[in-house]
Design a protein that fits this description.
Length: 257
């Protein structure tokens, strides 16, 4: 028992959510959510459309205010942070949006150099170029540096979106439906990239998805959000092979072994 307590005490939680409630008018979206993200872990948050997955991310970074409960990020209570403190917190968190959210009027190089230069005024042109090249190499697209986003495939745009986030060296990555709208082969490539990102950049990640192939390939831990609560949390096998009725229905709807 002493050994167990010792192991638990060494686990570093970068996000801790306790008894979280959020409503929009009469619509109760989150109904007592509890969840931890451990340092160095890929956590997949699974749920049907409209289940509150994206709302949860906005609450974590203070873009929305919750009704009750507690969110601790890097040992800081999100609800108690002022605007300046929230901005500083968000710089430590990277967002990979479903749409990739690239600047269409800028080259791939510009898309990465712009946020880096904006947030690091003391960097010289040579340092920015080196950082862009290293990050593009990490996502396998160094040869696309001078191209425009419109010239890229959907999978390449997704990779560039991830690279633009990575160039800021975030400690936490938030992926919002990273494989949505991509063909199966490209999905597999993005899944492999998310695993590589964790290993190369030592990130902790929340992956918002309803793609079970993605969750199985990428996640160390899976949390199933159902009617406003996490009803099962564990490895993919623990959540779905010893599943509840809800987990089984989600599995059969979404996934073919």
């Amino acid at each position: 028992m002493g050994e167990m307590n010792q192991v638990e005490s060494t686990i570093e939680k970068v996000i801790s959510i306790k008894d979280l409630y959020k409503s929009f008018g009469d619509l109760q979206v989150l109904k007592g959510v509890n969840l931890d993200l451990v340092k160095g872990e890929n956590l997949a948050v699974l749920g049907r459309s409209g289940s509150g997955k994206s709302v949860l991310i906005k609450l974590i970074v203070g873009l929305l205010k919750y009704d009750s409960g507690e969110i601790i990020v890097f040992d800081k209570n999100v609800a108690e942070q002022n605007k300046k403190e929230l901005d500083a917190l968000r710089l430590r968190i990277g967002f990979s949006f479903q749409s990739s959210a690239l600047y269409d009027s800028m080259s791939v190089f510009g898309n990465l150099a712009f946020p880096l230069g904006m947030n690091n005024k003391n960097l010289g042109k040579g340092e920015i170029k080196s950082a862009v090249e290293a990050t593009l190499e990490a996502v396998g697209l160094l040869d696309k540096m001078e191209q425009m986003p419109a010239e890229l495939s959907g999978g390449q745009r997704k990779r560039i979106g991830i690279a633009r986030t990575l160039i800021m060296k975030p400690e936490i990555m938030m992926y919002d439906e990273p494989t949505a709208g991509l063909d199966p082969i490209t999905c597999e490539e993005i899944n492999e990239l998310m695993v590589e990102v964790k290993e190369k950049y030592n990130t902790s990640s929340i992956i918002i998805t309803h793609d079970l192939t993605c969750a199985k390939a990428v996640a160390d831990k899976v949390a199933l959000l159902w009617e406003g609560k996490f009803i099962k949390t564990g490895t993919f096998e623990e959540v779905f092979e010893k599943g509840t009725k809800e987990a089984e229905s989600f599995y059969h709807y979404n996934f073919i072994k």
